[in-house]
Each structure stands twice: as C-alpha cells, then as structure tokens.
Design a protein that fits this description.
heterodimer, A: alpha/beta, Collagenase (Catalytic Domain), 5-stranded mixed β-sheet, B: 3-stranded mixed β-sheet, 14 strands
Chain lengths: 217, 271
C-alpha cells in the first residue's frame, strides 16, 4: 500500500521533472521562420514528393547515390510524404513526378528549383505552386572547388529538395541560439559548398525545425 | 497586357528554332527609358558558389574593377518543352551587359569596356522580369565594384558568387558605416583574444564565432553568448538604414557588411 509520504515524494519527483522539462523547452534553440508561404495546388501535393532523375542529370559525379541523399528529409514531418527517387528509364511515366534535369552552367550556379503556376509561367516563391522542377549543374567544374565534390553535390541536391519543400535560405538573426555561425544558423539551406561553419552538408536542426513549423510535426 | 514601358525602341527580335523542342529568343534592348525595377520581378531560388570572406572572394576573381553600366544589353531566353504543361516553358535567362571600366583594382585588362553576364531576362508573356540571380538588374548609370571571373566558353565575365561579386562604391554614408563596424570588430577581436579557441561544440546553446584568422570560438556560458551576440547586434545596428538596393540585391539579408568593409579597406575605391 502506498503511504502518504510516498505519494508526496512521487508528486515532488513529478513536479521537479516538469520543471526540468520546461526549462529545457525554454532553452531550446530559437529559429527563424525560414520558409516560403503558400502550398502546392493542382496535381502536385506535399505528400507526393517523388523525383524523377532524367538522364541529363546523371554524370560521373551526379550519380544515383547523390540523388538518394535526399532521403535525409524523410521522417522529419509526418505531413510531408516520403521522398521518392526514381532514375528515369525507358517506359517510365513522367506524370506524378517532380522532374530533375541537368544543365551545364558556368556562372557558379550549383542547382536551382523552378516553381510554376498553372499556366507554366514561373511562380514567385511565396505563391501557391502548381508544379516544380529542379535543375542540377552538370558542368565538370561546378563542384570541383569543394573540398569534397561528391559531398558538395549531395548537399546541393538536398538543398534543392528543401526548396521544393518550401524552405528558404536562412536569414541572419543575432538573437538566435544554437549552432550559429556569426549570426547565421548552420543549415543545409545555406548557399555554397558545405563547410564546418554555416553550410551543413545534410539536413540539420535548423532545417528540421523549419520543415516542421511549415508543414507540421 | 498593355505595355506601359517602351522597352524595345530598337528591338531586334530573333527567333531561332533549335532541335529537341528548344527555342531561343535573343532580344536587343534599348534601355534608355526602361526601368527594370518597375517590372514585376519573379526570382528563382537555388544553390550557388558564394563567398563569405574577403580572401576567398578575392582569390576567386580574375579581375576586380570599378565600372559603370553603358546601357547596351542583350538577353537570351531559353525555353524547353514541358510535358506537364504541354508547352514550352522558360528555363533560363541570361542578360549580357557592357560596362565601362573606370579603374582596375586587381588584374589587368586592355579593354575600356567589359561584357558581364547575369542570369535575368524580361519576358513578354506574362510581362515580367525573371531572375535566377540575387542581384538586381543593372540600369543605366549604375556604377559598381565588380569581382569578376572570366568564362572562356561564353567569352564573358560573371560576378564571383553572383551577389558576392558586386558592391557599391563607398560614399560618405557607407564609409561612416564601415568606420563604426570596424571599431566594433576591433573590440570583438580584443575580447576574443582572451578566450579559448577550438572548443568542442556543446549540443545546446552554442554560439560559434569564426575569427578572420579562422579561429573558431564556441561559447556555452550565457554571459559569453550574450557578449558575442552583442557585437553582431551592434554591427547590424550600424548597417541601419542601408537598403538592399544600395547593394544591388533583392534581399537585405544578403548584405555582408563585414566583407564589404574588408573590400574597401583592401582596395582604394576612389576615382
């Protein structure tokens, strides 16, 4: 039989646990709202994030392993569908997929995400999107300046998929806490080659927090 | 949509149908009455090589010059067929602008003018400026400090890191901002000199600051975090009224004032 003394002890333990839990919440990392407004309309849905990698996007560097790196976005938000990556093959339908193509850029572009309205014109990032596509830079010099070109290529594709999930480039905010580099939160959504500072090579806390804030936990 | 701007006064419209469903349109614009800032602007997001510090930016540039836009631009719009939309859709736009060189700060050139390309273009349907660049489109009379690298495959220059490769000339206002920023930075370096470097990052409440010499400081004590943040806040405050358009970017968040101050400290940008 539980005594009154034991009940008081249990209550005290529960209360102290609540205080510790609350204090952890209060000191949890604060994050900017680094995501775009709007959602998907028409046939594209945030629950159907299936990417079809066209042959133009495949190079000796941009291999299927680079594209499979986008699975890093899985299991972050239950409202975002599991990332699907399909390497285009003859006979495979193109409908129902977000198309990923390759192009040789010489201006320093590593990759880009092009959202579109229902009429096919390019949409603004904060609009509702009827569709979206990704273009990866297939130029042999694009990633050669990185300390690890393969890691950099993976990072870029993860970054572009992040844009298709309506995530934006992080903003500086000196009031932020946790994994901050000179006011900029460490994130895969920062531009540039991955480094030990602000540019993460894969999905990290800041990215996950914003994905959940945008679409739900 | 009625065109309210007389964009194309002496336009030469050349439509070339290429194979595989691609279509290229090359338009020569006379921009004497064109104000690209008056057009609806659609910006495409992406990932690109950028530079966060002076040394890497400077190393990336073949040429650093001060130049002004000569008002002679060509654009190339690229379309591809989309089965999703059942028609050709815009996938790329590149404008090539000619600038008159006023001063060479790094490198050599025998040319009085240079071609600089930037990924943006003016589209007819719908009538808007579509940009794949973080930089604003150049307009007549613009004068900038350019960090440029040469693209021999296209015989043109590009700004290094796109928006990290173009900066305003330092006027009295910007010079005053940098004087204040540099003072704050000196205070910060003096404070950091007493701190331990290369501290293993803690999982919670880290604030990591990387010094100009590459030293990394990781703070867990709240007093230290508050102190180092205060330097960032003061620097942000010093930037104050500087507008995104002053730096030729669409997003003020892209202004790296410390990098800019290093540029005008390293190079004599007076004409």
């Amino acid at each position: 039989m539980v005594t009154k003394r034991e009940i008081k002890r249990i209550i005290a333990l529960l209360l102290s646990a609540t205080v510790v839990f609350s204090s952890q919440l209060l000191t949890a990392h604060a994050h900017n709202s680094d995501y775009f407004s709007g959602t998907y309309t028409a046939s594209q849905s945030i629950k159907d994030m299936n990417f079809r990698i066209e042959s133009s996007a495949i190079t000796s560097l941009l291999t299927s392993q680079v594209y499979y790196s986008a699975y890093a976005w899985d299991n972050v938000s239950s409202n975002v569908g599991t990332i699907g990556i399909a390497i285009a093959a003859p006979g495979m339908p193109s409908s129902g997929f977000i198309i990923v193509t390759g192009k040789s850029y010489t201006d320093g572009t590593l990759g880009e995400t092009i959202p579109r309205k229902a009429d096919g014109s390019i949409a603004n990032v904060d609009d509702n999107w009827a569709g979206v596509s990704i273009r990866m830079n297939t130029n042999s010099n694009a990633f050669s300046g990185a300390s690890n070109p393969t890691t950099a290529a993976k990072k870029t594709f993860i970054h572009e998929v992040g844009h298709t999930l309506k995530l934006s480039h992080p903003k500086k905010n000196s009031s932020l806490s946790g994994h901050i580099y000179n006011g900029l939160p460490r994130a895969v959504m920062n531009q540039g080659y991955p480094n030990s500072q602000a540019v993460a090579s894969t999905v990290v806390t800041h990215d996950k927090t914003n994905l959940r804030t945008k679409w739900g936990t | 949509m009625k065109k309210t701007l007389t964009t194309i006064l002496s336009a030469l419209l050349l439509v070339t149908a290429t194979g595989c469903g691609d279509k290229e349109t090359e338009v020569t614009n006379n921009n004497s009455t064109d104000k690209t800032s008056q057009l609806e602007i659609v910006k495409v997001e992406g990932d690109r090589v950028v530079y966060y510090d002076f040394d890497s930016l400077d190393a990336s540039a073949d040429l650093v010059v001060i130049g002004s836009y000569k008002n002679d631009s060509t654009q190339n719009l690229e379309y591809e067929y989309s089965s999703e939309f059942g028609k050709d859709v815009l996938v790329n736009a590149v404008s090539t602008n000619e600038i008159e060189v006023s001063k060479v700060l790094k490198g050599t050139t025998d040319e009085d003018s240079l071609k600089i390309s930037q990924r943006y273009g003016i589209v007819d349907e719908p009538y808007q400026l579509v940009t794949f660049s973080e930089m604003t489109a150049m307009e007549k009379g613009d004068e900038w400090i350019f960090f440029l690298y040469y693209d021999d495959s296209n015989d043109t220059y590009w700004c290094s890191g796109d928006y990290t490769g173009r900066y305003p000339l330092p006027d009295d206002s910007l010079t005053a901002v940098c004087n204040e920023v540099n003072q704050i930075r000196e205070e910060r370096e003096n404070w950091l000199s007493g701190k331990q470097t290369d501290v293993t990052a803690n999982a919670n409440n880290d604030y990591v600051y990387t010094s100009v010499d590459g030293s990394e400081y990781s703070f867990t004590a709240q007093a230290d975090i508050d102190k180092v943040k205060s330097f960032d806040e003061r620097i942000s405050s010093a930037v104050g009224e500087v507008d995104a358009s002053d730096f030729g970017v669409y997003d003020k968040n892209l202004i790296n004032i410390e990098l800019y101050c290093d540029i005008i400290n390293q190079y004599d940008c007076t004409l």
